[in-house]
Design brief:
The complex is a heterodimer of chains A (248) and B (262). Chain A has 248 residues and is an all-alpha fold. Chain A has one domain. Chain A is built from ten helices and no strands. The mean pLDDT of chain A is 93. Chain B is α/β, with parallel strands linked by helices and 262 residues long. Chain B has ten helices and ten strands. In chain B, the strands form two sheets. In chain B, strands 6-7-8-3-9-10 form a six-stranded mixed β-sheet, sandwiched between helices. In chain B, strands 2-1-4-5 form a four-stranded antiparallel β-sheet. The longest helix of chain B is centred in the middle third of the chain and has 18 residues. The chains are: A mainly alpha (248), B alpha/beta (262). At the A-B interface, α1, α3 and α4 of A face α3 and α10 of B. The structure holds adenosine-5'-diphosphate (ADP) and magnesium ion. The site of adenosine-5'-diphosphate (ADP) has 14 residues of chain B, from β2 and α1.
Chain lengths: 248, 262
């Protein structure tokens, strides 16, 4: 427990000490909320779908948490380049614990950033219909973040440099995000694309968030939670196996 | 304590360690000496589970280093040749994290950290981020951290590189004491022959990945018919200067450091 705690704490300290990360984690979602929220809001309404901000905020929360959690994999690459990774790799602690401590820390900072989005959107006039479910929404975001942080540590373990890591981000994570229904409904897409969205773990996280905050779910909360659990388990196994084999 | 049995490590076309066999007994202070690029750090990295050998077996404290990594890791501590502190944390935080990773009991952490940071004269700067430290201070922190817990076996990979004479002395005194009072096994590399002669109970010369001689300082001098360890070393390894081929990560670090110093 002490080991998990100290590694978790390191991620939090490093986040709160980095002004550029804090500014980025507020600035980017704010930009998305303003640009998309105001830009597409009227079109959305005209299409008869109702309040776009309602629909958008859970998606932007997931977006923020998703990419912030992916950043944990980049931390592993930095730690390797700066040499600190060796210190943890030779310690008399199982590599699983080393990875989990950091990943849960990275997921915590990712969820804090997602929660900040919710606060920002309050200021912009967003009002969830189910206030009491906000803790559930945050918990869902944390679980997704842990899964993504584990996944990204797996990637960070075998990609040699940041370029390789960014390539994975761009060719895998971005497409998954755009096909998750976070920004726009995916009801009228061709059937092959629908299959992609139905195998996309991010879709279920977005759906579960909408269920918590505005009481609307496409797949249903039961299906969402099962999908999230499966995602968490697969990511953890993937991350743990890759991280075990890391050489420095 | 350490068993290395016909171990080879290749990086692509480079054979960094070439069919090396040796043993180190509990309580020994063993020095591995050789020119740049001879394969010393690679040997230590394999022994400490950071690299997997291409061929051969190695064990620490009876635990196979490849098959039983977790158990092997419980046996040793290490001071790396390359930087390995988190520069975005303070010295105290680096020490504290290390203490927890190595299961130092909570009640002892503060006392031990204070003792070691005072030893290397960094106690007054304990709450500064390590990125504000000079190169020598960072090195001292690495040393202090390596000595924070007391393992059965301690690896020191060129621990005194870039240290002033005072700190070098302090380090060796401390290490000698650990070796004497706790029967700790010490495995080290250094470029200072007088350090090896003064502190090692046994010495191996390694060149081009191969062990070319092994014995006490007296035996090595006798074998080569020389009067100092330095002469014995030069006689065996030749006087030609070696260019170390650069590890890509180190090269990156070097560039980055150069940039951040501007
Ligand atoms: N990660 C690596 N990739 C490729 N070559 C390496 C790597 N690490 C070490 N080497 C090479 O292996 C040889 C031995 O290096 P090393 O063990 O660091 O030498 P020493 O510590 O004795 O100076 C050198 O030629 C070095 O360039
Ligand atoms: Mg070396």
């Amino acid at each position: 427990m002490r080991v998990l705690y100290i590694l978790w704490l390191r991620q939090l300290k490093r986040y709160f000490r980095s002004k550029s990360r804090i500014v980025g984690s507020i600035g980017q979602p704010l930009l998305f909320l303003l640009a998309l929220g105001y830009g597409l809001g009227s079109i959305y309404k005209r299409a008869g779908e109702g309040n776009y901000l309602h629909f958008l905020v859970p998606g932007i929360m997931i977006q923020t948490a998703l990419f912030a959690a992916m950043f944990f994999g980049a931390m592993i690459i930095f730690d390797r380049q700066f040499g600190f990774l060796k210190e943890t790799l030779v310690a008399p602690v199982s590599r699983l614990k080393i990875m989990l401590g950091g990943a849960i820390g990275g997921a915590t900072t990712a969820s804090i950033q997602g929660a900040l989005v919710l606060v920002i959107s309050f200021v912009l006039g967003y009002r969830p219909t189910r206030w009491a479910m906000i803790p559930v929404a945050l918990l869902i975001m944390l679980v997704l973040s842990i899964a993504i942080a584990c996944f990204s540590s797996g990637i960070g373990s075998f990609v040699e440099d940041m370029q390789g890591f960014q390539a994975i981000n761009q060719f895998l994570v971005f497409p998954l995000y755009f096909l998750s229904g976070a920004l726009y409904p995916l009801d009228n897409v061709p059937s092959w694309l629908r299959i992609v969205t139905e195998f996309n773990p991010i879709s279920y996280a977005v759906d579960a968030m909408r269920w918590s905050l505005i009481g609307e779910a496409k797949f249903g909360i039961g299906k969402d939670l099962i999908a999230l659990a499966i995602t968490l388990i697969i990511s953890m196994v993937f991350g743990a196996l890759r991280f075990r084999r890391i050489e420095a | 304590m350490i068993k290395v049995d016909h171990v080879t490590k290749r990086f692509g076309a480079i054979t960094a360690v070439d069919d090396v066999t040796f043993e180190v007994k509990a309580g020994e202070r063993f020095a591995l000496l050789g020119p740049n690029g001879a394969g010393k750090s690679t040997t230590i990295k394999m022994l400490t589970t950071l690299l997997r050998p291409t061929k051969g077996n190695m064990s620490l404290n009876q635990h196979d280093v490849v098959k039983n990594q977790d158990a092997a890791r419980r046996s040793f501590g290490i001071v790396f040749q390359d930087p390995s502190v988190d520069t975005e944390m303070t010295a105290y935080e680096n020490m504290q994290l290390h203490a927890v990773l190595y299961h130092v009991p909570s009640g002892q952490i503060d006392k031990r950290v204070k003792e070691l940071l005072e030893l290397v004269e960094l106690w007054d700067r304990r709450d500064s981020l390590v990125k504000t430290y000079s190169g020598g201070m960072k090195r001292r922190l690495e040393i202090a951290r390596g000595l924070l817990h007391h393992p059965k076996l301690l690896f020191l990979d060129e621990p005194t590189l870039g240290l002033d004479a005072q700190t070098r002395n302090l380090l060796w005194e401390y290490v000698q004491r650990l070796s004497r009072e706790q029967n700790m096994t010490i495995f080290f590399t250094t470029h200072y022959m007088e350090e090896a002669e003064a502190n090692a109970s046994r010495i191996a010369f390694i060149d081009h990945g191969k062990i070319i001689a092994m014995g006490t300082a007296v035996e090595l001098k006798k074998q080569t018919n020389t009067r100092s360890l330095e002469q014995a070393y030069l006689k065996m390894t030749g006087t030609k200067i070696r260019d170390e081929q650069v590890d890509p990560h180190d090269a990156w670090r070097e560039r980055h450091r150069a940039r951040s110093m501007r």
